[in-house]
Amino acid sequence: MAELKREAVQRDCGQPAPDEAAVVAYLKDNPDFLARYPELLEVLELRHGAGAAVSLIERQVEVLRGRSNRLEDRLKQLLEAARDNEKRAANVHKLARTLIRQPTLAALVGGLRKCLREDFEVDETFIGLAAGALKRDDIDGLVRLDAHSPVLKAFDNFFRTRIVECGPLDAERARLLFPQAKALPQSAAVVPLEKEKGLGMLVLASVDPQRFQPRQGRLFLEMTADLVAAALRAKLG
Prior knowledge:
Blueprint: H1 2-13, H2 20-29, H3 33-36, E1 45-47, E2 53-55, H4 56-101, H5 105-120, E3 124-130, E4 142-145, H6 150-154, H7 156-161, E5 165-168, H8 171-177, E6 187-193, E7 200-206, H9 219-236
Parallel strand pairs: 3-4
Antiparallel strand pairs: 1-2, 3-7, 5-6, 6-7
């Protein structure tokens, strides 16, 4: 169709019609062309998918309006993310204060679980420590991991790689970690404590299957693990 139009112009004018790419290039190099020839705005037409014709300036207004709407939506998303980050930063600060103020190891674990439940929507918390670091096994939520611990077998890949794992939590492992839970968690984040030294593991779990996702950010989880590990070290001696 474009070739037929070009041939028609050639016959009418007796000169070769300009190549479309050349026209496009010229207009890009001369963005004020239509400002110098405003009468063209009244005759140029663009057609919608439905077939209705509109002037070029009306189409430009429509395009600019759409771009403005997209920018406004993006700004709203950025503002919401900023508010979420500000809230999360405040909660992390509160968590740090909570851990520092606890007088005993048992109080530390209890304060951690309470803070995570109230401020971070974490329904269950599990802390497993290497047998060389923890000599007792009488604190709820704090488990000593020796060579025969079923947790080591259930999470063998995690202990081999010591990489943060996020995603669904199957019923078997959920019962192993949280035997007293009223409702079994459906998703969890498994985070190493002192990755290089192998202090242990921190598991944050939720009954919401969408709470922890494989592709979610790791920064908060790693920060929380660092705080917990430091607080534990202070109490373990």
